Amino acid sequence: GNSVTQMEGPVTLSEEAFLTINCTYTATGYPSLFWYVQYPGEGLQLLLKATKADDKGSNKGFEATYRKETTSFHLEKGSVQVSDSAVYFCALRGQGYNKLIFGAGTRLAVHP
Amino acid sequence: EAGVAQSPRYKIIEKRQSVAFWCNPISGHATLYWYQQILGQGPKLLIQFQNNGVVDDSQLPKDRFSAERLKGVDSTLKIQPAKLEDSAVYLCASSRLRGADGYTFGSGTRLTVV
Question: CA A49, CA B99: separation in Å to the nearest integer?
Answer without folding.
Answer: 12
